[in-house]
């Protein structure tokens, strides 16, 4: 299993409650379950794989769009996962 960025006691920005009510602006983040942490790590690892493949394409506008869309896709996936 990979090392998670967060491990230990939550600070003021993270709730220890996995059922924390979410706000669009997320003043507090809910605690993730171990399964959610693992899925988060798998999503980020796949994104890094795709990033490497995309970087093999000659530079240009479409490559830039592909990278931007990859960033957006991972951002939205993680936002849903952590909501």
**Rounded average pLDDT:** 84
Distance between the termini: 23 Å
Uncertain spans:
none
Largest sheet: none
What is the helix tally?
2
How do the SSEs run, as a string of H and E? Answer: HH
**Strand coverage percent:** under 5%
Shape assignment: elongated
Radius of gyration: 16 Å
* Share in helix: 40-55%
What is the β-strand count?
0
Helix and strand composition category = mainly alpha
Walk me through what this model shows:
The protein has 83 residues and is mostly helical. It has a domain at 34-81. The protein contains two helices and no strands. The protein has helices spanning 34-55, 61-81. The longest helix is centred in the middle third of the chain and has 22 residues, at 34-55. The model has no long low-confidence stretch (mean pLDDT 84).
Secondary-structure topology with pairs:
Elements: H1 34-55, H2 61-81
Helix pairs in contact: 1-2
List keywords for this structure.
52% helix; 2 helices; 0% strand; 83 residues; mainly alpha
In short:
52% of the residues lie in helices and 0% in strands. With 83 residues, it is mainly alpha-helical.
């Amino acid at each position: 299993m990979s090392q998670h960025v967060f491990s230990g006691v939550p600070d003021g920005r993270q709730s220890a409650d996995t059922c924390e009510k979410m706000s669009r602006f997320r003043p507090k983040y809910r605690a993730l379950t171990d399964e959610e942490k693992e899925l988060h790590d798998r999503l980020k690892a796949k994104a890094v794989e795709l990033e490497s493949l995309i970087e093999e394409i000659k530079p240009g506008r479409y490559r830039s769009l592909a990278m931007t869309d990859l960033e957006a896709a991972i951002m939205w996936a993680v936002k849903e996962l952590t909501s």
